[in-house]
């Protein structure tokens, strides 16, 4: 079986860059000064007994962040970023994540290091055993576990190219065993490049058996958290590997299989024995130190290089018998790990050879990897470019640098709290929903980013959500009904609700004839089915026929059908109804500034726009206030220019419409509006057969209970109501509506 | 209270043309020869105990067609037309509706006239009483009962203009009593214009007391079906009216209130006594003969004139005390009814006066009615233009004309059986759904024609339907999921179904790079979310990079995301799944003709296009086959021109794609496809969480049960699957899917 030749075939080459990635990353929680946290695992992070993404490792302070398995580098990093955002924002505000593999200074007394308070007794017992066996201090180190799987299509195509091995399972096992042996032999290169534990802090080593000089990687050296030296396991075959592991357990050198801390693990089943049935499905690389210069401890370049390295390990031939080959690798890796970070490695020549062969492979296989190859080749030549060297060179010392970096990442997590890192190009409501789902421990899957389509899962219960609030809990017809303003009004009126009188027209001519019928009242002309205030004209006192017709034309530009409708006096409020409850009531007021007697309107606008909640293009909960023609005209009508200085306390409006999208303010008044109106909102939404709706009521006096007909009017019901304006209002209390959506979908988890 | 002056006020004038209309129309069922039917009420018309639209009147052969109450002339006629279509197509194929008010020749023996076989015993008993009291023959006459209500807004506005009457109810009663008295006084004008019973047929009169000459209206004359002459009721006030009615019943002159056959009835409650609480809400005009020259017995001009006439009756003052006024009217109406249809009426002068005053009113009130006024004014002057005259003048005699007209309307009802008259501009699926709903006796309400939005009701159970199959029985998310091809495939693949391998791309550059991965197989490039075969390119054998890129560009023109996907070999079938059952399976084949060895392709196409099921722009179940550039190119590739003569039995394809919209044939194969594939379709739709879906499967051999992976592939699932192509296939059995939708919505009625 000539893998090298098989990889070069025309049908295989296009598949080589297919792979699946999954990352587990440990991080110590520290306070803002960089000292180990003394708090329990954050309660906001749901239940550790099933949380798929955020667990604790050995110690109560040691977070374990776990991504789902993905098909691309971008996705795995996106999930890892998102999980970081969630973990950070679920921790007490004075805590952050330590970015280094080596822990910060540890408590003087070992008993002050608290073992993770897990629910399952056997989990706690195992950790107690480890504490006795290895001491607690060594376990406080953190790292990346990198799960790597060649693309299934690639593996299957390779399998088809050969006849030696009869089953796909045996083929996969053979292939990954070769990769594992070569990995063990050549892994020193990763140690060299990505080793990032040059120094330890106070309390990590409690004995003198420790590196006396700065090194590349304490963690992956023999001074790291390793098995006893008498634990030996052969990688010659899966049989041998399995037998040796069993023997070590039988002899008591290991308490169980998982205590074997190999730099690479063969994965696929729950136990090694399962691999005989399933074949090895993927490998877990355990020798990657945290890259402290990246917020999530690893970056795309590293992953791409590791992928290329894995291909090389498949491609290149083993040059010695298995055990000898592995033993040689172990020896070299340890030696490289213990080299001074600023020194040229003793294995420079072999390193150059490896890069040259990777280069040759990339060319033969037409891989698009030149940039990443060149990048890390320069690190090989220049040790000062490695991660370990950067840490060693830190002027302020490693610990202070760790604290500074942690604070930087902490600030990044809080800079735009309405965003979810990794998914920030999605709609805000979907970002909030994903945040809440990650926090509560739902399994998430972003099925289509541009379509805002996600799935959420708890145990066997699967739900799909689009745009944050389109779910299985609403019917197909209810949103269609709400999308049609005529039908909505019709249905509400028949159910006994007060809606503005109005008529629908499909031709300008017919609408023009209605002039005499409307001219005597206040009325509004609007397109039948748009949702964003576009094409709407309000006439408060009998317009001329000419103005009337121009209003009609504006509306007809947006839709084939338009509505002329009674204009109701009062204030418009948005009631967000979900599951027969009003969970938020919002008042929207037009873009405005309040004077201080000193600043100009322009300055006041600039100041108000500093609010981190304001941005543009719906990427923030509030929009920047503009100073365009419309705003200037509006000011002019009030006798202002942008350079006028309003009196202290004087509110100056820059817009007539109250849309958030034109700089309006959102003000939560959920607790202030009279209950009688909430009841109306709930009943109206029920009459529309909807479960989730943002229904707009005109109310003359929200404090006075509803008593007679003129006391309210229903303007419209929205089938995809914005949620972020309630979650991040300009003023008033935040209403976490995305959590309400999750509550509706997963009552078994959240109620 | 000066109504005339009030009507002229600026705030009232725009409201004057508001009104609500409802029509009840009787029609005898006859055979194609025009003889009274001998069959029972059609079983296809559901249950007469609750059917809101199609009932039987006195006799088992006498249909009573009832429209819902509507706000416009167009709507009331649309419903009436639709109900006619449903009634006609639910009758045996050799039956039709008699278009004349006077019945066709009646059986010699009165016992051969069968009383309606109603379920409620008291209904049958009442009819037996009427048969004894008046004889069966007189009851066989048919007519229009026209329910008329002034617009509520108009009535309320008028009420606001006055102070005399304290409540809206008393105001309405006063107003309608005036209108009723004036109606009775001036109704002779309607008798003159719309009287359409000049002659009787064999067996209607069984005694010599009958008109000796042709007249205008037997039905509304004293020879019609009228109460005994000693039944007298005053219209001076509602009190008097109610007292007199009660007295007539008490004295046994009437069996009950409803036996009082007045030309106008005051309506609002179930009984006259209810009117004291509700006020009179509307009036029922009962003196309109069927207009046999219109398919539904009445037309828009008549209704508009009646509306104008009602306004005039409100506007004009009463000139004599009530009883005298009404008595005078009764006398004149009877006299006019019995005038010869070709003669000038004796009341020409009063008629001219009425038209002059209506003209004056129309001008003062700015009513847009000139056309209708002029039209009927000319009938007044020229008696030969009246309906009665037209019947009298029929060369073939009234009975033969009746049979001919009936056959004409019968043919119209069957000409396009896939349409529902009155709603033929709506989508075909909605027309079918409305047809079935009307047939089964569901209350229908077309909420928005252009949006295909209807409501259906049975007793207290209300459902909304859009586009014929969007209902409350599907969730909001399922159709959104099906709309996204990537997500659909993802979900199906995870659930273990076979879907074509594929990838989604959002940039031309990224897609271009995928060339090597796809070039070795058959594959298809398509836009992610369009549904009509647009933008799709199929590559069966490794295209050049250039062709590949041009395929990409075509797809990107339609969507921001495109899919490159494995092309599966086999035939594509559409499975229509509803409520976990496959109710139809369809094979679509490209536009084609089959040669006969004589005709040219052009002639064969013309011949095939004669099929009444073929039309254009989705207004028919099948589309016309085109002979455009694409078709000519396709012919050329096969060595044909449009003038070629294919051999007998030779099938020549004019298109590559099988879409019905480009002239393809739809072939029902529901009973032929192996059950195993139906099971897959059902389970796949369930995996998508959908209730109604048209799911497309590729099957290499539909007769061979599914056994291994290559045996099928799921192409896509459609969330608004066309239904008309299954209901009216080109070949094979019709599958009435709209009835399945109703079954799903109203199991209590239809299962």
TrEMBL record, chains A, B:
GO molecular function: ATP binding; glutamate-cysteine ligase activity; glutathione synthase activity; metal ion binding
Region (Glutamate--cysteine ligase), start-end ranges: 1-337
Cofactor entry: Mg(2+); Mn(2+)
Enzyme class: ligase
Alphabetical list of PROSITE patterns matching this protein: ATP_GRASP
Transmembrane segments: none
Domain ATP-grasp: 489-746
GO CC annotations, alphabetized: cytosol
The protein's role, per its UniProt record: Synthesizes glutathione from L-glutamate and L-cysteine via gamma-L-glutamyl-L-cysteine.
Family indicated by similarity: In the N-terminal section; belongs to the glutamate--cysteine ligase type 1 family. Type 2 subfamily.
HAMAP family found in the cross-reference section: Glut_biosynth (MF_00782)
Subunit structure: Monomer.
Name of the protein: Glutathione biosynthesis bifunctional protein GshAB
